[in-house]
Structure formats: structure tokens, C-alpha cells
């Protein structure tokens, strides 16, 4: 017996997951009072049931986070059998260490809050850094959207002369996964963050002259990182047309327009966060509902997630065999 609940962050994704699992969404009501306070009410019992609350902590991050906490508390007070948070995009994950003295580690604080509110399991996608899992004392599964994004972009790239680009040192592992799956060489940029919204590329490892670049990242917020990367790649002689793949397409403000002006021809993201408006035709969205539903199904059936990961690894190995010989720079 299980229930899928949706917060207000991404009802379309929650509905897609429920549809995949062949169950209606659990009924709930969320209301915001004039003073900004939030009221959450479950409109059906979850007593003894396994509950999956689907809520990316996307902008407005704090509102969506408090809503998730309120849902968790409501489930616990209604004696849910198990309460799991399905947080496809985990906000505050970038605050996973102190860069300077007198700073908080907000990702750790969020982990503590979720557990304090009664969350007993977390399902997420492409967590910014794996060490965020260490802030929890409950099971955390971070699924990967990379196989699905590779499937979407593969046929669009000129495989003979394309390269995968990591925009910074922190993304090398993810970019290696892309390069491996697509059978392409890897190029690494080194980025220095000047402020929350300002970055600078200082070094590059690997040749991009005349190459079509696929820049990959876990998220696009302002687009600043990728615009900087695009400029650095063009300066190094890359093909003018660039491709981008990123799991979490927050695409704040003028991010899409800025990326297109910087030479990005096609942009691939997933629907871990709800689009904030009409998407430009160059933005392609890959659905993560089936991946989340598959993980929930396995969780409910007490099946290992290993097979989920192995399936992805098998398809990667098959593609590597088919790929033309490619060096890693
Ligand atoms: C940084 O470490 C992340 O992986 C992203 O590169 C970054 O947070 C994206 O943010 P923005 O689009 O604002 O540069």
C-alpha cells in the first residue's frame, strides 16, 4: 500500500510518476496565508502506507523546502508507514562545504531538517556532489539522468569531431560518464567562482580546435558558468555551434537567451524542475518520470536498485563498443 503525494513545486512530474505507477495522486491541499505562512492538509489517510512526496526544492527554494517539511510532518502525524522525499532537484546542494570562515553548510542543515520532520528515505537525481549523501543518516539514492540525456543528444552530435566538455573540475566525473557513453574525447575547463553569479575560466585541458563541443553540467541556474565556458571554447578555436546537456534546467532570468547568444545551438535538460515559462524551441526536455517511477517500483517491491544502475552501465558498454575509436585528451 503506497501513496504518491505532490507538493506545489512540480505537480506535472508527480502526475507523470503516479501515471507510470498506475495509481492516482494522493489528495492534499496547500494554501498560503496572507502573512506568507503555509498550510498543508492531507485529504486522505496515509496511515500505515509508504508515502512518496514528490517535491523538487526548486525556486522559490525556501517555500518549496518548507512545504516538503510540512508534508513530511503531516505524514508522520497521520502514522504513515514510511515517508520518503522524492526530491529530483535538491536545492542548497551546492552549499556542501565552507568556502570561507563564518559560513554555514546549508546542505547539511537541510538534510537535518528533512530527517527531523520525519523523512526516512530520499530519492534524488544527479546530486550536485556525492558527499551530500553523507549529511543524511537515512538511505539516499541519487539516480543519474546522464543515460537519458545521452540518448537524447547522441544523434544530434557529429560523432567524428565532437568532444565532451566539463565546465569545471567538479564536473569531471559526470563529463567522463558522458564521454564514455558517447565514445567521445573529454576536455576539462577550470573555473574560478568570483561571486554567486560570476565565474571565470582560467585553464583548459584538451584540444577543441574545429571541434563541436557538448558542454555538460549538473545544473543551469543563471547560465553564467556555461556562457563563460562557451567564450573560453570559442577563444580556443572550437566550432561556433555548441551543444549543452544539463540535468537541472532552472534557466533563471535570461539564461536561455544568454546561452543562445553565446553560440549554444541546442540545449538538453530534464524535467526535474518545472519550466518557469514557455521554453525556447532550442531547449529539449527529457522526462525523468519513468526513471523515478522505476526506482519507486523497485523500492516498493524490495528490489535492489543495482539492476537500474547495471542496465545503464550495460547500455553504456554496448555503445562504447559501437563507437568509433576516440581518445580521451
Ligand atoms: C557549479 O558548481 C555547478 O555545477 C553549476 O556549474 C553552476 O551552479 C551553474 O550555475 P550558473 O548557471 O548560475 O552558473
Describe this structure as you would to a colleague.
The protein is 32% helix and 26% strand. The protein contains nine helices and 14 strands. The chain has helices at 11-21, 61-77, 106-116, 146-153, 172-182, 224-235, 255-261, 289-300, 306-322, and strands spanning 2-6, 28-32, 38-42, 50-54, 82-87, 121-125, 140-143, 162-166, 186-195, 198-205, 212-220, 242-249, 264-270, 283-286. α1 (11-21) packs across α8 (289-300). The chain has a seven-stranded mixed β-sheet with strand order 10-9-8-11-12-13-14, sandwiched between helices. It is of the alpha/beta class. The chain has two domains: 2-144 and 290-309, 3-Layer(aba) Sandwich (Rossmann fold); 146-287, Rossmann fold (3-Layer(aba) Sandwich). The site of ribose-5-phosphate has 14 residues, from β11 and α6.
Sum up the structure in keywords.
26% strand, Rossmann fold, globular, 329 residues, single chain, alpha/beta, 2 domains, binds ribose-5-phosphate
